[in-house]
Structure formats: C-alpha cells, structure tokens
Amino acid sequence: MPQIVTVHAYDHVYRLLRHAIASRSMAPGTRAVESALAEQLHVSRTPVRDALRRLESDGLLIRTGNGGLEVVGLTALDIEDIFAVRGELDRLAAALACQRGGADDWRQVSLAIAGLGPAMEGFGVSSYEFSQAHEAVHSSIYQIAFTPVVAQMLGDRMLGLVDIASELSYTADGPDEPIVAQHLELLEAIASGNVERARAAADRHCREAEAVARAGARARTERPGDGPGR
Fold first, then answer.
1. What is the C-alpha to C-alpha distance for residues 202 and 171, in angstroms, rounded to an integer?
2. Where do runs of H (alpha helix) occur along the chain?
3. What is the pTM assigned to this prediction?
4. pLDDT in tens, 78-98
5. How far apart are the C-alpha atoms of 4 and 112, rounded to whole Å?
6. Could you please report the per-residue DSSP string of 155-205?
7. Nearest to residue 17, comparing CAs of 117, 164, 199, 116?
8. Using CA atoms, how far apart are residues 77 and 223, in angstroms rounded to an integer?
C-alpha cells in the first residue's frame, strides 16, 4: 500500500510510539527505554529521544523517581475531554468546509477515504497504517475548512487528538465495521452545501466513535488482572 501520510523520520517515530500508547500496545506503566526502542524500531537513538521528549510534553509519558520514563494510562476523564475537544473541532471544520469547499476538494477527501479500505483489510483497524489513513481523511477536511496557516497549526498539534481518538475507537480488527461507509456519509453531508447537516453529521460521527472508545475502556478495566492490583 502506498504511504498515505508522508512524514519525516522524527515524526514517524513519534507517531508510532503515540499509536502504541493510545492502542495500549505499550501498556500503562511500561518503561520507555530509548536504546531498546531504537533497536526495536531499527532507527538511531536521536529520533527516539526526540519522540520521547514530545510524548512527555504531551503528558503520555511521565518521569519516574529514577529519572526514567513510563507510559501514562488514559483515564475515563481523559477520554471524555479528548472527544469533547475533537467534537468541537470536527463540527467547526465540517461547517467551514461545507461553506468553502468545491468539487476538487471533495475528490481529494474521497481519495483519502478510499485509502481506509486497503489499510483496514491489509493491516486491521487497530494498526498504525489504518491510523495514518484515518488521519489523512480528517486532515483533508481540515485543509479545506481552514487557511493553510491554521491548518498547519492544527496538523502539528490538534490532529493528534483526532489520531488518539481514532486509536481509542478502532480497536477491533473485525471485518464488519462500516468504517468506509461512515466516512462517505460524512463527506456527503459536508459536500451537500447544508451547513447544519454537515455539522450534525460531524457530531454524529464523533459521538459514535466516543461510544466505542468508552465501551473499549470499560472492557479493559473489567478484565482480570487489568485493575489497580495488577
């Protein structure tokens, strides 16, 4: 599958590790050791060091008493806040894109949505590859909605929330999730020219994702050995 989002090595390592934390491949309490991660990812220690600093700044890693770093688990309130912010951004982006977009723009979003299917079928919805494909869809909407300067600012920081929200929502690799259809429905509403319809579709899309994320979080806390006494 061609790479859907082109990123530099530093960003690539950062996104890989952020995905691992949000998807719990790196579980809460896991030590983040620079040398071990560099070896595992087959990169030098420099991009790993940069990624760890960024993740600590994001609050996803915390400094321990001995100076090391370990993964911080997302709480139920964290998830609530992530989706609250994402919902506001997505509703605003949908409304502005509806007003500012044209036929060429909708074709670009449609192409991004087309990348979801191969990523889902080839790697699974909980994969890093799907995460990047999903971010590309929402990034394409943000690029229509906002000026290049604002879109770049959002891409640098705020789209991380969309990415984490995706990783919290799409955690099962089953083939029956209507993910492509959901995003085509969102695009149809945004391209309709009806701002209220676009805003409502974005709100529904975000609420459905939040419901799945909350259910997944509850399931994890109910598993034996996954509680405080672990």
1. 21
2. 9-22, 34-41, 45-58, 76-100, 103-114, 116-123, 128-145, 148-153, 159-169, 179-190, 195-222
3. 0.82
4. 888 988 988 999 999 999 999
5. 8
6. IIIIHHHHHHHHHHH-----TT--HHHHHHHHHHHHTTS-HHHHHHHHHHH
7. 164
8. 20
